[in-house]
Each structure stands twice: as C-alpha cells, then as structure tokens.
Amino acid sequence: MAEKRRLGKGLEALLGRVGISPEPELRGTVEMVGVDTSEEPTQSKKIDITKIEPNPFQPRKVFDEAGLEQLAQNLETHGLMQPIAVRQVGERYQIIAGERRHRAALRLGWSEMPVQLYEADDRQMAELALTENIQREDLNDIEKATSFANYIAIYTGTTHAELAKRLGIDRSTVTNLLRLLELPEQLQEAVCQKKITSGHVRALLTLPEWEQTEVAAKIQAEGWSVRETERFVQELRQTGEAEDPKNPEQTLKIVGQDGKTRAVPPQSEQVRQLEENFRHYLGGMKVKLIQSNDKGKGKLVISFANHAEFDQIYSILCTPNRAAG
User: Fold this and answer.
1) Tens digits of per-residue pLDDT, 37-50?
2) Which of 68, 176, 187, 208 is the most exposed place for a label (fewest CB within 10 A)?
3) What is the predicted pLDDT for the residue at 321?
4) Where are the domains of the chain?
5) What letter does residue 181 receive in the DSSP assignment?
6) Buried b or exposed e, range 181-210, using 16+ CB within 10 angstroms
C-alpha cells in the first residue's frame, strides 16, 4: 500500500502544505502555500472506483450536469492529469478533493481510478468541504450558510471568529451568511431558486417576518435592485412608510395600524408645492407630506441623517419668534 501522509493542522495546511490541487473552478482562488518538502511526495496508486465515496461532510448534493458532462469529455480525451486525494477508512476510501473528477470517471465507466492517500481527521474533512463550498460561484449563500450551521452544530462551542480563522475568511462573512437562516423558509427557497438574490434578502433582515414576505414579493414583481431595496427598507424603518423605488411620484407604501402595506393616491400639485415650501423653510431637509384622506388628515415627516441635521431642524422649529423664510 502506498505511504500515507498526515495533513497538518488548519485548512491552509490541508490544501497547500500537502500539495492538493483544488478543483478546476477553484484554481486560483484557494491560496496554495507550497508542498511540504520534508517528505517525499506520495506515490499514487489505482484502486477500484466503486470503493471510493464522497466526503461524508460534504453538504453539496446537487452537481451541475452540463459541467460534469464536459469534464467527462475532457477526461476521455486527455485522461486524468492528477490523481484525486483520498483518505482510507477501513476497506474503503473517502474523497478529500476531486469529487467532480470521480463522478465524471463513473460516467465513463472506469473500473479503476488513480488516487493519492493522505491522513485527515473528520474535522479537517468538514473544513475542506466548507472551503470548497464558499468558493464555488454556482452555490448560493443559503447553501453556504447551511454548511456553516452544520459545522457549528457538530463542533459545538465553535465561535464565528474561530470558524472564520480556520477557513481563512472574514468573521463578518460567517456571521452575515448565518443570519440568512433567520429568514422565512419561503424566502430562503426563493434565494435557492434564484428568484431573488441574497443581497436583497439581507436588506430585509431588519423587518418583521410578514413585511419581509410582502417586500420580497414587490422586489420580484417590480425588479428592484439591491440598492433600491436597501433605501426602501431604511425609509420604511425610519418613518413607517416608503416610496416605491420604481415610481416614487405615484405610489407610496404605508404600514398601517392593521399591519398591512397599502397604496395611497398620487400626490396633488398642491401637496408637492407644500413639500417644496417646507424644504425651503428647513434649509433643504427631506420632507414628506402624506395626505391620508380628503378631510385633512395626514402626516408631515421630516428626515435627518445625523446629529447636525437634527440640531438644524430643532433650531429652526424651536427658536422663539423666528421669522418664516
């Protein structure tokens, strides 16, 4: 049996120090730190392809069929340029890196496949599965977040900072992805089906669940950008209402006491002129005059972005005997 090399501590050692090349779509994105020259490279051997199993900690269950077919054609034409990396477990072998190549070889009906043996514990196997997932462009953020959550569930006590350090990514990346799992299942499914992006739903996290669902429906129906969604949510949280990004002059979304979002009629020319007068009086501050009905009921909303703008508004409105501008 070929000699097995032990994988060093940490994911960087797992991928780089033993000289394991990443999958083709990962090449150039995983930092390779060089082969450990203290030992001779492991000689590859051919083994029964049916004895090779996927990484048991691999959360990825769906593989792109077109990509696998293309890879199978490349293998048939050029052969396997590099053995896949595996660890031995009893009489069988588990893939450390190279699952796509293994699947492509199965399609071609290969009976044997070149492998290179390494020693890796369960935690290193789980971390390798994670790093492959977070770097694949065809995986959505819900799938990545799920893989993080599964890891933390297995290795209890692991903090976001510790996991980020082990994977070589920012702590904020771990935290922001895991927050997506707080969304309603239907929104998570919408991200998985690419009906809405993770950037959109991330902007909705600060809203109540019922509002998340309603605003998400508007995003899909009207094609809001992430920036438009962020502005809408920010205004909704600050004032209780927000303009429709695609048609701000005609449709205003208001959250009523019944918890429903409803549209109000377009502004009249008189209301727009009054808003302009208020803006002029307040030195250019953002002002929204909301007319709820034809009996004079409504709301005047003055927005400010910082302490200085608040102080300016306070000075204008609360200074005694100030002459109207």
Assistant:
1) 233 435 578 999 99
2) 208
3) 56
4) 5-129, 195-263, 267-318
5) G
6) eebeeebbebbeeeebbbebbbbbeebeee
Are the C-beta atoms of 137 and 25 separated by less than 8 Å?
Answer: yes
> Is residue 99 flagged as an active site residue?
yes
Please, which contacts does 216-225 make with residues 24 or more away whose CB atoms are closer than 8 Å?
216/187, 216/190, 218/244, 220/190, 220/195, 220/196, 222/246, 224/200
How many whole angstroms separate alpha carbon 97 and alpha carbon 125? 9
- Cβ(264)–Cβ(270) under 8 Å? no
Q: Which two tokens stand for residue 41?
A: 């490279």
Task: Indicate which residue of 53, 99, 137, 214 is catalytic.
Answer: 99
- The first and second tokens of residue 249, run together, are 């002059």
**Residue 303 neighbours by CB distance under 10 Å:** 14
Residue type, 108: L
| Helix, coil or strand: residue 225 | coil
Say what angle helices 122-134 and 141-154 make with each other, to 10 degrees: 160
| Separation between Cα atoms, residue 2 and residue 195, nearest integer Å | 49
**Token digits of residue 99:** 């699952």
The domain defined by 5-129 folds into 3.90.1530
Q: What is the dihedral of CA 153, 155, 158, 162, to 10 degrees?
A: -120
pTM above 0.70, yes or no: no
Instruction: Tell me the average pLDDT of the chain.
Output: 76
And the tokens for 151?
């890891």
Q: How confident is the model at residue 311 (pLDDT cuts 50, 70, 90)?
A: confident
